[in-house]
Specification:
By secondary structure, the protein is an all-alpha fold. It contains three helices and no strands.
Length: 70
């Protein structure tokens, strides 16, 4: 309650907010990235979607049999 004091939310409080899960995941990923301009740039490439439907579908992977190359 002091001016200029620390402000923080617990994960349980964040989960109740509409964008809470997004913030929790971003915070976790940000801690794993390098610090500095490179890490900030990499964090811009992170897309978080609710559910299984999203516009970044997988490419068309093909199975490769490595035994044919012997």
């Amino acid at each position: 309650g002091y001016p200029g004091g620390q402000r923080f939310n617990t994960p349980a409080e964040l989960r109740k907010r509409p964008d809470g899960m997004d913030k929790i995941i971003r915070h976790a990923v940000k801690g794993m990235l390098p610090k500095g301009p490179l890490g900030r740039h990499l964090l811009d490439n992170l897309y978080i979607y609710d559910g299984t439907e999203h516009k970044h579908e997988a490419q068309q992977p093909k199975a490769i049999d490595i035994n044919q190359y012997k």
